[in-house]
Design brief:
The structure is a homodimer of 315-residue chains. Chain A is built from 13 helices and twelve strands. Chain A is an alpha/beta fold and 315 residues long. The first copy, chain A, folds into three domains: 2-159, NAD(P)-binding Rossmann-like Domain (Rossmann fold), CATH 3.40.50; 164-264, 6-phosphogluconate dehydrogenase C-terminal fold (Orthogonal Bundle); 270-311. Chains A, B: It holds the Pfam family PDH_C.
């Protein structure tokens, strides 16, 4: 396929390299001349503008930060093909009302950033959420994007933008806020700092992330983060009640047991591969069950899927 | 010294072995005959009762679970020497009103338990809180215990029982409850489980600990755990307010920056060694500053100490 990648940082650069390695004709563009030069020296096709990169493309992948998206969309006025993106929050991008859009979020990253850190193997085995809005997303466009990214080794997870934003609040954004709340207990508290060990180290690790990055993630996904944080606070208040019970040890056990069971079952083990109908509702049900698409069939009538072992129906 | 160790699990067994290796005459006892046999076959002096173990001892170290402590104390009716313990909560032990008591808590552990897992090097470099209650603890007894445990390589941290219980709630008990709250978000939520990655893994690791152990820790330290959990909930509610601000990203940054600074400064680097007066108030001030005792001088007038680097007065 002819693919354009706009934004050649870690994700965009890796995507350009991975798609090229998979045999596609890829043109890249980055607003930063130094980054364009870096990619050119690396032997890549680099265009001089967004419009030039998109000319002749069948799919344009936007790998730019959320605040930059509207400007790039405006530059794509003359392009009428499929558009996807890689931003980590999907509701606000959906709200932009981009034509022929399939929102995406590859859950891949590294400690480093920029084109120099790009790696064509970055997406191998990573979860790549592709948004599917019933009555809004064109299923054929969705399958085109799914075929492209599964071929890079990604586990394509179908979800609505709202489902995605809620899930990442649960597994990433709220965990960052909890880690920060624990780390803040150290302020003016050298005795606690001297006694902290393994549980403190792990529970606070991500609090060391740059404040601007955590704030951008959580603030950019404010609605879902607020909902999940409210649920977590409510849960913690139940622990407070249990700590005030006549026998706090007994009172605490049921919730802690549920937590332990859930944690020990995570990460879920992949079950058996299957062939399933490529309908929008079936795909969303697959994602809700914790499954993903591993390949799109030639006929596009079915997808090859993988569901977690715990979801398998045992006779 | 003549030392008796009551309870020969991981901590008691390791203590018996470490004290013997340090040249002390140690007698052990465990209520479980199989454990006594194991220690005997290991070449240790093992008594047939608590009273027999304590006969002739200058210090008795109780390494038994909190619920068992009152019974063991009753068996020590004929013993009038110094008593210390290793239980992980100090307020409830102090409330038992044990005569000539210096409460202790070595912050050491392993994944395994029982005498078979004992290791004489377990306390090397570990923080060992020794409780010092102004007007209650005999300073000479405290220094005797401090001399014994610093010689095993432990960092002896002076603190009151209340300070200890509050600090461990901050660095261990509440972190376990937060990890459990995050892990509980997975219940009925396979999509989130499929997307969880590094921040979720680390933030929930200790939720996989046995529910009974977490409940015993938190429930056994209910007052301090409740206080700290209340403070953490209040802090998280401020994050909720910030998420509702006109610019949530900007609103979130100050608290996240404070958390990040605190986390990056942890663990504190040890500063320069010093010689300090061995007074009760001086020792408690040392502990509150995040420092610890590394040795007790012959004259017992001073202790050798270490304070964290950030606490050092620079000229």
């Amino acid at each position: 396929m002819n693919v354009a990648v706009i934004g050649l940082g870690l994700i965009g650069g890796s995507l350009l390299q991975a798609l090229e390695a998979a045999g596609h004709a890829v043109t890249g563009y980055d607003a930063d001349p130094a980054t364009r030069e870096l990619a050119e020296k690396d032997g890549r096709n680099v265009a001089g503008s967004v419009a030039e990169a998109a000319a002749g493309a069948e799919i344009v992948a936007l790998a730019v930060p959320l605040p930059v998206l509207p400007g790039v969309i405006a530059e794509l006025a003359g392009y009428d093909g499929l558009i996807t993106d890689v931003t980590s929050v999907k509701g606000p991008v959906r709200a932009l009302g981009i034509r022929r859009f399939v929102g995406g979020h590859p859950m891949a990253g590294k400690e480093t950033s920029g084109y120099a850190a790009a790696d064509p193997a970055l997406f191998d085995g990573c979860a790549w959420v592709l948004c599917l809005e019933p009555g809004e997303t064109d299923l054929d466009d969705w399958l085109t994007a799914a075929a492209l990214f599964t071929a890079l080794g990604a586990r394509v997870v179908p979800a609505t933008a709202a489902e995605h934003d809620r899930a990442v609040a649960e597994i990433s954004h709220v965990p960052h806020l909890l880690a920060a709340a624990l780390a803040r207990r150290l302020v003016g508290n050298p005795l606690a700092a001297a006694l902290g060990a393994g549980s403190f180290r792990d529970g606070t690790r991500v609090a060391g992330t740059r404040a601007e990055l955590i704030a951008a993630m959580c603030g950019g996904n404010a609605t879902a983060t607020r909902e999940v944080l409210t649920a977590v606070i409510d849960d913690l208040r139940q622990r407070l009640d249990e700590l005030s019970a006549a026998d706090p040890v007994e009172a605490l056990i049921p919730a802690l047991r549920e937590a332990g069971d859930a944690r020990r079952a995570w990460p879920p083990k992949p079950g058996a591969a299957a062939e399933e109908p490529a309908g929008a509702e079936e795909l969303l049900a697959l994602g809700r069950a914790g499954g993903w698409v591993t390949a799109v069939s030639e006929s596009r009538v079915t997808v090859r899927t993988m569901r977690p072992e715990s979801d398998r129906i045992t006779p």
